[in-house]
Amino acid sequence: MAEYIIRRVLQALLVLTVMTLLVFFGVNVIGNPVYIFASSECDQACLSAIIADLGLDQPIWRQYLTFVGNLAQGDMGKSFTHGVPALHLIFERLPATLELAFAALVLALVVGLPMGIYAGLRPDGWGAKLVMSFSMVAFSLPVFWIGIIMILTFSVQLGWMPSVGRGDTVDLGFVETSLLTLDGLHHLAMPAFTLSLIMMAMVIRLARAGMREVMFTDYIKFARANGVPERRVLGAHALKNILIPIVTVLGMEFGGVIAFAVVVESIFSWPGVGKMLIDAIAVLDRPLIVAYLICVVFMFVTLNLLVDILYSLLDPRIRLGGGRA
Amino acid sequence: MTPVLELCGLQTSFVTPGATIHALRDLSLSVARGEILGLVGESGSGKSLTGFSINRLISPPGRVTAGEVRLHGQDILPLSEPEMRRLRGRKIAMIFQDPMMTLNPVLRIGTQIRDALLAHERLSDAEIRTRAIAALDEVGIPAPEARLRTYPHQLSGGMRQRVAIAIALLHQPDLVIADEPTTALDVTIQGQILALVQGLCRDRGTALIWISHDLAVVAGLADRIAVMYAGRIVEEGPVDDILDAPAHPYTAGLIASVPVPGQRGGRLQQIPGRMPALTDLPPGCAFAPRCARATAACGTMPPLTPVNEARAVRCIHPLGQEVPA
Ligand SMILES: Nc1ncnc2c1ncn2[C@@H]1O[C@H](COP(=O)(O)OP(=O)(O)OP(=O)(O)O)[C@@H](O)[C@H]1O
Ligand code: SF4
Ligand SMILES: [Mg+2]
Questions:
Q1: Can you give the pTM of this predicted structure?
Q2: Which of A226, A230, A241, A243 is the mutation pick for testing B, counting most B CBs within 10 A?
Q3: Which residues cross the membrane (chain A) (predicted)?
Q4: Is A223's Cβ below 8 Å from some Cβ in B?
Q5: Which domains does chain A have, with CATH numbers?
Q6: How confident is the model at residue A322 (pLDDT cuts 50, 70, 90)?
Q7: How far apart are the first and last CA of chain A?
Q8: CA–CA min distance A313, chain B (Å)
Q9: Is the beta carbon of B247 within 6 A of some atom in ligand 2?
């Protein structure tokens, strides 16, 4: 287990290195941030001063080494526009994004799992057809379109739901959350639902497919032949088997959800890192963009590791670090 | 004395909007306390389906469409599903073919025993433990206490089948349906499992239906045998009588195709052709296309006719009688 984790951490470091290269050089290709700082009457000398100040006069490989050196010390540079460390800004905004993504994940499971299981148990009923149509629609409609339609319907037309911001939050000391106030939940509902749709569609499909497969296995027949009540057969004997692929896929998708949050946060003006990224791109705030991307990759890698560990807990046949399969 | 189980004119069908297939027809048999009935026939003849028709676990769209299933003289077909569940595992138990597939891969052995126990009894954790250890001990599993925490994949095939047998016998059922429980095992293990089940059922007076396509296995085990062909019983009676002097041409063919130890060189006989599909049965005797004794009279289905007080055969021209020219 320990050996396995060390190997995975080394892999993760490699991924991060490649990633910094891509991001750093990629971002350097687009636009010139100097003009953000330069006022209209700034002459050549003033421009040179700004360039030197930002370290942009150095050759690009030296800029990269400086960047990596700083990164290793946890320093991702100062935001050009805010003048504070980029990492600070991200950590300030990250809780709102994680809250949104987490709410979407829970919603996808709580709604998707029962729907998928139901559709798997009665695959020919009209209920199953309804569920499957829903999952197809949820999967194929663009997220931004659904978000906008929801705002138009529930906020503009009906006036039931707020469409902007987080609402009231509670300060827990280390983090602020809108999960604990009614107003906060009210604000969270539409963005979280919008963000959860793709995951929900996936959970429905996986749960349905898993259920259809599992219900024909001998171990389910055996449990029934022993008189185990149907609730227990479904809730433990079948569920634990269908959860394995669902956990894997959701774990891998969760990073994607955080990335998708960019769209949802923009639509609902949710003050998370996604919205911040869009703003940063608009003004070419390089350190902030780079810091965001690195944080996202870091989260992806960590999540994958966690999923593998969780997976081995769910499926006893998987032993981390090799051994008997 | 009333037999433990009687099937009377049982018919099991797969009913779909397009078509109805009768997979079991006019099936009658009985098993007494302490008796072992061997149910033999080639693949697809309906042996497993007979087992599932008894404890009503046929996969949809299959269901019993006519006849009676009498347990201690009482027809259990009218019972509701909850009433039926209370019989499964408590009065009627089942053991399956492939021990790899019978136990749930993601639940500990202890959990699976516990679920089977709690299906019919209210027990404390300590009682469950004692009962589980005793059950594993009884089927010859070494260090049963340690086994409770293991998962099925950590046991060998033979051990797994022992666990399945222990679970099936937890509540001292009156009837055990064993669906080819040794087919997937090594020959040496086969013998052990055979002896184990035989011994346990003899000791407790359990009625046993042993399903097998292997006449050799059944010959050494059963008191009586019933031979199935295309969903019907074609011959039924005491095992020695039938092996010595089969009355149905199909039974004779089965016996002739079993290799006899010590008699090498003699050509094994084969039954020409194959069993017709259920959708494509000839109008009369289903064996007619393969039967050397078939005449025009075989174009109407012969009834299961008593040969003597212990035997019956479904054939117009049973062996031992002249075939009219
Ligand atoms: N869903 C279904 N629809 C139609 N026919 C079915 C269905 N399921 C099973 N059958 C039919 O029921 C018949 C009996 O199958 P069963 O499994 O009882 O055979 P078996 O004698 O146990 O064979 P084997 O030795 O291969 O286990 C088969 O001919 C099969 O075609
Ligand atoms: S009824 Fe006729 S066809 Fe069928 S087994 Fe007997 S002799 Fe053969
Ligand atoms: Mg079978």
A1: 0.82
A2: A226
A3: 12-31, 100-121, 133-156, 188-207, 242-268, 288-314
A4: yes
A5: 2-72 (no CATH), 86-314 (1.10.3720.10)
A6: very low
A7: 14
A8: 10
A9: no
CA-CA distance, A311 to A303, in Å (whole number)? 12
Q: Per-residue pLDDT tens for A46-100?
A: 778 777 777 777 787 888 888 788 888 878 778 877 778 888 888 888 888 888 9
ipTM, 2 dp: 0.92
pLDDT in tens, B8-53: 999 999 998 888 899 999 999 999 999 999 999 999 999 999 999 9
Burial zone of A303 (CB within 10 Å; 0-12 exposed, 13-18 middle, 19+ buried): middle
Continuous segment of H or E residues that includes residue A310 = helix A286-314
A123 neighbourhood in chain B, CB within 8 Å:
none
User: Could you tell me if A309 lies within 8 Å of chain B, comparing CB atoms?
Assistant: no
Neighbours of B16 (CB within 10 A): 11
Strands B74-75 and B232-238: unpaired
| Token couple for B325 | 């020219």
Residue that is written with structure tokens 């709604």 in the block: A111
Distance B24 CA to ligand 1 centre (A): 9
Instruction: Report how far residue A160's alpha carbon sits from residue A215's, in angstroms, rounded to the nearest whole number.
Output: 42
> What are the backbone angles phi and psi of residue A149, rounded to the nearest 5°?
-60, -40
State the smallest CA–CA distance between residue A89 and chain B in angstroms.
44
Atom 10 of ligand 1, residue of closest alpha carbon? B23
- What are the angstrom distances between the C-alpha of B79 and each of A214, B76, B83, B171, B211? 27, 5, 6, 20, 25
Token pair recorded at residue A289: 């963009």
> What is the token pair recorded at A277?
């990224």
- Which one, of A80, A69, A51, A205, lies nearest residue A132 by Cα? A205
Query: Are the Cβ atoms of B104 and A216 closer than 8 angstroms?
Result: no
- Cα separation, B166 vs B161, whole angstroms: 9
Residue A78 carries which DSSP code?
B
- Contact B117/B170 with Cβ under 8 angstroms? yes
Asked if B18 reaches chain A (Cβ–Cβ under 8 Å), the answer is no
